[in-house]
Design a protein that fits this description.
By secondary structure, the chain is mostly beta strands. Helix content is 14%, strand content 49%. It has nine helices and 40 strands. The strands form nine sheets. Strands 29, 30, 31, 32, 33, 34, 39 and 40 form an eight-stranded antiparallel β-sheet that branches. Strands 1-19-20-13-12 form a five-stranded mixed β-sheet, with no helix packed on it. A five-stranded mixed β-sheet has the order 6-2-3-11-10, with no helix packed on it. The radius of gyration is 48 Å and the shape is elongated. It starts with a strand and ends in a 5-residue tail after the last strand.
């Protein structure tokens, strides 16, 4: 598949022959022109610099100020090509090995007065170009990206590549069916400079266009099922500061994308069947039809007849012997050949228009001998050493990955041979390859064949990527609502009376009170007040030092509110009685809310823990023996707010969270029998695993507690009397509500594609 801004002649590439032609242009690295122009500039020097983040800058120096080059890219194989018109190549070295970031190497070639600079990539990557006088700088990103528009499109004079800005809008998304059954999606923009990232996710092709506005009228879904192409539907929607277009395709397909000016085109065609895979499938015959009717004819003669009919060159091995009887009427000649080969235990190998026919064992032995010779040649290839810096991973871990099939304690090195004596490969290394690492510089030291070293570099370029990071924000909300109401009463009747017969009658709340009241009555009698009320004005009560009972002794009912917010007291003093009454009431209402918001940033699949709180000290005692003094020990208990999380980013930009959230608080202290106090801790904790969209807030769980309590304290029977019974009872009501909610929001922190 090829992704290009324009091809060399300015035509749009297409699936099939045009795609192969573009790849052939790059592979050929040469040009032929009828009237070559005289070179006016000279490429004098080419250097590269590996920058942090895997970015590589290639600097080309010229003898004269450089003009805007023509640039295009391919995806299979991934390459960036710059064509420099009227430029001569003065570099002594044709190819420069890079091996950093996404860049493998740089090749320069001159033909017919033009110079082409080809950058080989490990994987497709975005790039930028800029011109500084006599220098042309090509900056290649390390990220996997879709095609970016060339810095210098045909006719452009801007020396730097234009990145899409918010001023560019998506104008239209259209669909066309090609002549070969391919589906063509045409994305139009209001201006140049849209940077697109094309990738395949299962049966979907995802096109992300950064920093491009999406008008509401273009946010739609196109159903293109009736066009009979691999494309089923096209959905366009906003995503962050850009636009995402999802193309759903059915069946095996291959894609091609290119950008020209204000238009980005994606072609999706049915995938051609690989010849190697077709060998295992049922053969399809389409040769011209023939009729054979032979009795006991030599096999070599039948093969000669088939060669005459098919216009192919058939070479038959000397070991092919024997006769065959055929009666085939109106069958394709290639089917007839297939039947003859199966009947005689033969096989064929085709190269161009020449077919070699021999017994199956003879062909298998020959191919095995070729494979053995190739393996023996690999054993004789001179080993090369390479030093591969690791940017984001750990050199020790990657070295273990490359040699994971090697026995413990050996990194690379000598692997044995199989039973047939053929060399074997261990891990990603060849038999003679070795790999070690330097912890100080985080560098791999590789020694192997050149092909293996290149393969390892390509593998490391894929593995050594910056790990995405996730910001996890959580909120723990504890809400409480309390209500309490209490009504109470104090009530007492006290009095004493002595009748004309000398009987003393007294009443009050306690025996102590009645004793005092009786003493008051006797005091009145001895004082000459016989027959008078105890509290009569003429009574001499109190003159003898006997006091009226105090309030607590006078109360018959003592059920006040525990913490009254207000009270009302009433006393009535008569000639021979004393009435005491106090009404008390209290009502409490409370609402509280505690919000805790821990947040933490961690790498993908790495556990992060954040906690805040205190360690509460308490004392415990251990007895040293019977009757001995206990030994005091101070211990500590954590009372913290803690967030423990391990995120895993999925392929569709969602996050799997393994979470542990804890919120402890000290409720109160209780006395320790041995002395001191120990805390009672309220624990709130949740441990769960949840799948969340990027930026979505999810409620992990909650606890809702409701407590209702009605209390009644009364004097039996008297408290049940209507209305008056309220003087003989105390009522209380308590309502408590507590709610715990835990919210979590994960956000993937990733750099925007450039």
């Amino acid at each position: 598949m090829t992704t290009t801004a324009t091809d060399f002649q300015g035509r749009k590439p297409a699936i099939g022959k045009r795609r192969a032609g573009i790849a052939g242009l790059i592979a050929l690295l040469g040009f032929s022109f009828a009237n070559p122009a005289q070179a006016e500039n000279v490429l004098e020097d080419l250097t590269y610099t590996a920058q942090p983040g895997g970015r590589v800058e290639v600097t080309m120096r010229f003898a004269e100020p450089v003009t805007v080059p023509q640039a295009f890219t391919t995806e299979a194989p991934p390459r960036i090509a710059l064509d420099l018109a009227d430029t001569r190549n003065a570099l002594s070295q044709r190819r420069i090995e890079v091996g950093a970031g996404a860049t493998s190497g740089i090749t320069t070639v001159e033909a017919a007065g033009r110079t082409r600079v080809v950058v080989d990539l490990f994987r497709p990557a975005s790039y930028e170009t800029r011109i500084n006088g006599k220098e042309l700088v090509l900056s290649i990103a390390a990220n996997v990206a879709g095609t970016t528009a060339a810095a210098a499109a045909a006719g452009s004079r801007n020396p730097t590549k234009t990145i899409a800005s918010n001023s560019v809008e998506l104008s239209n998304v259209d669909f066309r069916r090609g002549t070969d059954g391919e589906g063509r999606i045409l994305v139009s923009f209001s201006g140049p400079g849209a940077a697109a990232d094309l990738k395949q996710e299962g049966d979907k092709i995802v096109l992300d266009i950064l920093n491009v506005k999406l008008p509401p009228s273009q946010a739609k879904r196109l159903d293109v099922l009736d066009f009979a192409t691999p494309v089923q539907y096209i959905e366009t929607r906003s995503r962050g500061a850009g636009v995402r277009i999802e193309i759903s395709a059915k069946g095996p397909f291959e894609q091609l994308a290119y950008q020209t000016g204000n238009e980005y085109v994606v072609e999706v065609a049915p995938k051609r069947v690989d010849d190697k895979l077709a060998k295992n499938a049922e053969p399809v015959f389409n040769g011209s039809r023939v009729t054979f009717n032979f009795q006991d004819i030599p096999t070599r003669s039948v093969l000669q007849l088939i060669a005459d009919v098919s216009d192919l060159n058939i070479v038959v091995a000397d070991s092919v012997q024997g006769n065959v009887t055929l009666r085939l009427i109106n069958v394709p000649w290639d089917q007839a050949l297939h039947i003859v080969l199966r009947a005689k235990g033969l096989d064929q190998r085709k190269q161009g228009n020449v077919i070699w026919v021999a017994p199956q064992k003879e062909i298998a032995d020959r191919e095995q001998a070729i494979a053995d010779a190739r393996l023996q040649m690999e054993d004789k290839v001179e080993l090369v050493s390479d030093y591969i810096p690791i940017s984001y991973g750990n050199a020790r871990d990657i070295a273990a990955l490359l040699t994971k099939d090697v026995s413990s304690g050996q990194v690379g090195g000598s692997a044995g041979t199989g039973a047939s004596g053929q060399s074997q490969q261990r891990g990603f290394m060849s038999k003679r390859g070795t790999v070690t690492y330097d912890d100080r510089t985080n560098t791999l030291l590789v020694s192997d064949t050149p092909d293996k070293v290149l393969e390892i570099r390509q593998l490391i370029a894929v593995l050594d990527r910056p790990v995405q990071q996730v910001l996890i924000e959580s909120r723990i909300v504890i809400a409480t609502d309390t209500f309490a109401r209490e009504l109470g009463v104090k009530f007492g009747i006290s009095g004493g009376y002595e009748d004309n017969n000398g009987n003393v009658i007294s009443t009050t709340g306690t025996a102590t009170g009645t004793d005092r009241m009786s003493n008051l009555a006797l005091s009145n009698r001895f004082g000459g007040g016989r027959g008078l009320p105890v509290f009569a004005p003429g009574s001499t009560a109190g003159t003898g030092g006997i006091a009226v009972p105090n309030l607590n002794d006078r109360l018959n009912i003592n059920l006040p509110a525990a913490s009254p917010a207000g009270s009302f007291g009433l006393a009535i003093l008569g000639a021979d009685y004393l009435l005491d009454l106090e009404l008390s009431a209290a009502q409490n209402e409370g609402r509280g809310e505690v919000v805790s918001s821990p947040r933490v940033v961690t790498a993908n699949q790495k556990e992060a823990v954040i906690k805040q709180g205190q360690e509460v000290a308490y004392v415990t005692f251990q007895n040293s023996g019977a009757g001995g003094t206990g030994t005091a020990t101070v211990q500590f208990k954590e009372v913290v707010l803690e967030l423990k999380v391990t995120p895993t980013i999925t392929a569709d930009d969602r996050v799997v969270l393994n979470l542990g959230v804890k919120k402890d608080a000290v409720n109160r202290y209780i006395d320790n029998p041995g002395g001191g106090q120990v805390p009672i801790i309220d624990k709130r904790e949740i441990n769960t695993s949840v799948l969340v969209d990027n930026g979505q807030t999810v409620v992990l769980g909650g606890v809702y507690e409701v407590e209702k309590r009605d209390d009644l304290t009364k004097v039996p029977f008297l408290g049940d009397v209507p209305i008056l019974g309220n003087l003989f009872k105390k009522t209380g009501r308590t309502d408590t509500k507590a709610e715990l909610l835990i919210f979590v929001t994960p956000r993937i922190l990733s750099e925007s594609l450039k």
